[in-house]
Amino acid sequence: MGSLLLTSHWVFKFFFINLQFILFFLGSFSSCSSSSLHPLIANSKEVHQNYTAISDFRVVNRRFLSDCPDLSPYQKISVSSNPKLGDEEYVNVTVSGVLFPSELDWVAMISPSNADVNSCPFNGLYYAQTGDLSHLPLLCHYPVKSVFLSKDPDYLSCKKKECKKYIKGRCEVKTCSASVSFHVINIRTDIEFVFFSGGFDTPCILARTSPLSFLNPSKALYGHLSSIDSSGTSMRVTWVSGDNKTQQVQYAGGKTQTSQVTTFTQKDMRDSNILLSPAKHFGWHDPGFIHSAVMTGLQPSTNFTYRYGSDSVGWSDQIQFKTPPAGGSDELKFVAFGDMGKAPRDASVEHYIQPGSISVIEAVAKEVESGNVDSIFHIGDISYATGFLVEWDFFLHQIFPVASRVSYMTAIGNHERDYPESESVYVTPDSGGECGVPYETYFPMPIPAKDKPWYSIEQGSIHFTVISTENNWKENSEQYQWMKNDMASVDRSKTPWLIFTGHRPMYTSSTGLLSVDQAFVDAVEPLLVANKVDLALFGHVHNYERTCSVYKNVCLAMPTKDQSGIDTYDHSNYSAPVQAVIGMAGFVLDQFPSHVSSWSLKRISQFGYLRAHATKEEIKLEFVNAANKVVGDSFRIIKKQDSSNRQVKTGQ
User: Fold this and answer.
1) What pLDDT digit, counting tens, does each position of 133-143 carry?
2) Which member of 10, 202, 263, 614 has the greatest number of CB atoms within 10 A?
3) Is 149 helix (H, G, I), strand (E, B) or coil?
4) 251-301 pLDDT, tens digit each
5) What is the pLDDT of residue 351?
6) What is the structure's pLDDT at 198?
7) What sequence ranges are listed for the domain Purple acid phosphatase N-terminal (predicted)?
8) Cα(464)–Cα(117) distance, integer angstroms
9) What number of other Cβ atoms are within 10 A of residue 630's Cβ?
10) ω before 83 within 30° of 0 (cis)?
11) How far apart are CA 497 and CA 456, in angstroms?
12) Is it true that domain 328-651 has CATH number 3.60.21.10?
């Protein structure tokens, strides 16, 4: 059975490699006038749904750019903004002088402002990874976001009229106008707004604004925290700036650390041998410079304040943060989720929208504000930028209210790492050519080396083993040996709980292609049982699901109800780990089939997060619905501790 499934895994790889050749062939010879998806792609949603966001806007720059008929000499586009843009504001864009309003009229935000928004007839293969095979692209550079003018309810009915021509005191020419709002954050590069007609299928340019610059493109922004070890006495803060000179973090009432500065370039992005990638070409956006500094000399489970920046670029506000508890201490409160991404805070269309992300991050922010969170674990599929690199800035802006306050630990997912010929386990183009480079730059975890995104950390009574399901996990691999050694070395008298985390799950009732890779399960699941892993947390599938104590698809133990009716797993007599899928933090939700396996005990298809409270005697975990804060599932894992260990700990 295992060898058959492993063969199926390689069959899929072979299929995708051949699909790339087909894309190349069809992209080279398809009709220039085509603006529809080729049936090969349109009929293969099962293949593409998890990594290619096929939508009208996603493939907008695969359309032929025609010339707009010059219907109105009065058309113009303007913005209501200060001469220089702030770090965050809503910019009103007004289009006026329109003779014939159309539901196909739209405005795009372009950055950098000098990006080529003409057609690129010689670069047809650049865009094949969007899933569209039309021969000619629309734009040489993707828009950051777009808004249809019909979002102004008065536009199509032309309630905002203006007379442009009078004859003998009578208005002979009336025009219409519309205003739409764009949520703009400091992305350092100039922006421009372009008025298109023809929708996303047959667009043409009507008017464009002058470039708009940010007041301080070098500003230190989007700071976020992470732990560097298990002591709770040091915290890393990472932020973005347009300036490559070193900056500082000032913290704890007078301490200072100088930043290390890094970045990445287009040369660091990857193409396959057949297809050019978004990250390296039409989706590229300059990331500025990523600064990172380690705050030392802290105390665990303690509140401090910090700010980052410099006198030349400006300073962030003073931010209060909390250090996590030291490994081996008793109590830890954490939140975990996967597959968050981001969503617009305006009426715009973006390349890859995760509709639940804002409600989840706002709910988690309230948890952090109340002091109920020591740390956060985001288990893969972080921003869903997938090669459209400006979207990393929008994601960092979105998580800032929580990631700047507590340790924000991450695991890599397929949308950060996977790409053909990049040594990822899976050959799908899910990262859009990023191949983990932006992820590792923005989120420096305590990993052993570059492109080895696995690590372990202890907080409170828990040892977390964090792996990469996208890098080699086979039995002869470096990561496999690391997993084996890491879990075997856990001192269970110090950290009685062992939680294993990675992106792709071992168990899910969802039936999507590659939801579970049986080869991964066969290789790694025995390690979990051998090392008595208490809980395994995964993402990738976009819902919440909890299992029994399961091994090889069999329930080795079932939870019992406590006095409050809560499912309770007693690991004093260990049998197998509890497994949970928690990929419900933003991406469009996956529904469950009508028939499920007996190991599946609880299933919820709602946006939310996992909330956990651990002591040395028990872990209590809850699924929290982000919209209404209702607890949809609750379970406990308990373990009787040896009394002599507790006495020794108390004496120490």
Assistant:
1) 433 334 567 78
2) 614
3) helix
4) 998 999 999 999 999 999 998 887 778 899 888 999 999 999 999 999 999
5) 81
6) 84
7) 224-323
8) 47
9) 11
10) no
11) 13
12) yes
